[in-house]
Amino acid sequence: MALPRSGPVRSEAARLAILRAAASLLTERGYDHLTMEGIARQAGVGKQTIYRWWPSKGDVIAEAILEGHLLAARREPPDTGDARADLATWLVELFSLRSSPEGEGLLRSFIAAAAGNAETGRRLRAEILAAPLMLRLSRAMGVATGPRLDAAADALLGAVILRALSREEFGADDMLALVDVIVGTHPRAEEDTASPAASVG
Amino acid sequence: MALPRSGPVRSEAARLAILRAAASLLTERGYDHLTMEGIARQAGVGKQTIYRWWPSKGDVIAEAILEGHLLAARREPPDTGDARADLATWLVELFSLRSSPEGEGLLRSFIAAAAGNAETGRRLRAEILAAPLMLRLSRAMGVATGPRLDAAADALLGAVILRALSREEFGADDMLALVDVIVGTHPRAEEDTASPAASVG
């Protein structure tokens, strides 16, 4: 009895094999040497199967990143109780993807894929600016929801994207300056003056 | 006597012819139908002349934008005396490039070119975040220079880039919210309470 040649289970297995093959080849060879043919061969699928789901290798890589097969773009920010520091830590980790061995050029590949494909573009923003990040930002700003919160989220991630595009460094101090500018310095100033030394007298 | 076949003058004429041809073809046919061959034909140069200076059509377009042959990405912000409003106006104009007839996809093409080419990436940031914009921002923040000013500039332009990538709307109110978040609401609050109605009593 012949098994059905397609269906949800088979499709999901193929999809995962493609994402894993893409991640593995990227790590071995780098983005410039990655081809749809190579991914198809390693995944054991036809090239047309890949093109059925993704228009370019950049889109395959974008999905591999978003699903956690590569890098940790969706890693949640820490939760230390200091939302400003948590945000800065998250930004530093996001930006440091640039300098990881498999990450050279990868954040930029993701950006290029987002530029070329609407769905990848929507996912770039929606999945990186997910609930855990928005919660830290909301806490740090003292704003529950609304256009100010959305603008702040766009500003944080957008600044990282721009620095990645312009190939400029963005150190931990720069990240804190960015968070300070966006979140405002007032909640922090209150915390600072609430330290024991400041409250004496 | 034969004229020299190359030299600074001839090169500059060819360079300008290429940029103008690229701008003209893009407006006529759209980015997807733009090819290096087509640009070369219209400019009356060999394709290799184009590749000598630019690795891809995206890079030609990026340079055409930066030099003002297409769109007005480098347009200075207005100077009305209200630096916050000037910044919001500038952001709205920058983002509206998206919806201009020749601008469909163009901002994203520029971003993709910046992702693929380091020099284009550097120019994207350095030339759009030029002196007139930095001056308005400096005024609005009350900060002359330093990492906070740089972070604020990255946040403004980065937010526009991210919204363009994610294909989400970014209306005038959103731009004002963005400026408010980044510049801080305090100078504006002072201005508001200095109005005649508020100062009575």
Record the SSE blueprint:
The structure is a homodimer of 201-residue chains.
Chain A: H1 8-29, H2 36-43, H3 47-53, H4 57-66, H5 83-96, H6 106-116, H7 118-128, H8 131-141, H9 147-165, H10 172-183, H11 186-193, H12 196-199
Helix pairs in contact in A: 1-2, 1-4, 2-3, 4-6, 4-7, 5-8, 5-10, 6-7, 9-10
Polypeptide structure, described:
Chain A has about 200 residues and is mainly α. In chain A, about 70% of the residues lie in helices and about 0% in strands. In chain A, helix 5 (about 85-95) crosses helix 10 (about 170-185) and helix 6 (about 105-115) packs across helix 7 (about 120-130). The radius of gyration of chain A is 21 Å and the shape is elongated. The relative contact order of chain A is 0.10. At the A-B interface, helix 6, helix 7, helix 9 and helix 10 of A face helix 6, helix 7, helix 9 and helix 10 of B.
Can you describe this structure in just a few lines?
With 201 residues, chain A is mainly α. Chain A contains 12 helices and no strands. Chains A, B: This is AcrR family transcriptional regulator.
Average residue-wise pLDDT of chain A: 80
- Name the shape of chain A in a single word: elongated
Please identify the structural class of chain A as seen in this structure. mainly alpha
Q: Percent helix among the residues of chain A?
A: 55-70%
Which residues of chain A form runs of ≥5 with pLDDT under 50?
1-6, 186-201
What is the overall number of helices of chain A? 12
Pfam family, one (chains A, B): TetR_N
Domain HTH tetR-type (chains A, B): 12-72
Keywords (chains A, B): DNA-binding, Transcription, Transcription regulation
DNA-binding region (chains A, B): 35-54
